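Figure caption, in words: inputs first, then the predicted bound structure.
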Amino acid sequence: MFNRFRFGADLEQSKTEEDKEMPVAEPQAKRKPAEDAADRAAKHTKLTRKWQERYHSICDECFEKVIPCTHYADVPLRLLIVGHNPSENAWTSGFSYSNPSNRMWKLLMGDFHGRQWSGILPQDWSMTEQNVMPHGLGIGFSDLGHEAGNDAAAYGKAIMHRWKSEFYQRLQAHLERLRNSLHSNKEQNCDNIYGHGPLLVAFTGKRQYSFLFDPPLKRVDSGLQTSQSLPPDWPLPAACEVWVLPSSSGRAAMTDAARCKPYMDLAARLHEIPWPNAPNCTCSASTEAIKQEEM
Ligand SMILES: [Zn+2]
Ligand SMILES: [Zn+2]
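Bound structure (zinc ion present):
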C-alpha cells in the first residue's frame, strides 16, 4: 500500500520498510490518518530543499545552489547544535529553526519573555547569519534526521535509529575531515583530548537524545549529561560535553524559568571557552584549556 506514494529516486529504498514499522514502535492513537508516514514522505519529496547541515560555513553561492560548500573548511567547533529534523519551513528557507513560531533564536540570544542573559549568540548576530557561524563563532548546526517534517512524534523507533547511525557517520566524517586538514600525515601524534570534535554538543530537545539509546530513554534530565550516562556507542571522546536542552517548541508545557535555565547554563559554559583558538584546535594536550566540570 505504500508503494503508490513512492516518488522515485528521492526516496531512499529503505524508507518503505521502516515506515511500516512505525505504528509498532510508537503507537500514536491520536494521529490522524492524513498524517501517516507515507503521506509525510510524499510531502517531503515535494518540498524544495535549501537546508544543509553546517559543520563548516557555507558561501552565498553554494547556499543558493544548494550544493555542499567546498569554499570553507570544517573548523573545530565550540558548540554543535543538534535538532530533531528540519521543519518544512527550515527545509525550504535553508535556515534551522526559521519557523516564525519557533523560539529557538530567542533562547540562543538570551532574550526570552522578558528574561535576559548573556546568550549563546552575541546580540549583533542573527538567524540569517547561520552560514558563517561555524567559522565566525565556532557554532555548527546539524539535525538527527535530514527530512522535512513538522511533527517529531511522527517518526518512530526504526527511523530514529537509522537517523542516529547517519548522524554518527556524519559526525565521524567531520572529525576525519578535521584530522586530514590539521594533521600533516596520518601517523602524526594527536594528544587532543577532544579529538578535534565539538567541545559542546547540545541536543535541542529530549526526544532526539532519548532515541540514541535502545530502548529509548524514558526520562532525560536537561542540562549537562554525565560522561557515564552517554549512549554506549557515542562517537565523541568523553571530554566533549553533551548537553540536552528543552525543546524551543511551545508544545512541551513548562515554565519559562525551567525552559531558559539550561540555555543560560550552556551559554555560561560556552563563554568559558576561548574563541578563536579553542582547545580542540591543536594536537597538543589540552587538559588545562577549559575547566573540567566535576562529574
Ligand atoms: Zn561555497
Ligand atoms: Zn590532532
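Residues 1-30 have pLDDT under 50 and may be disordered.
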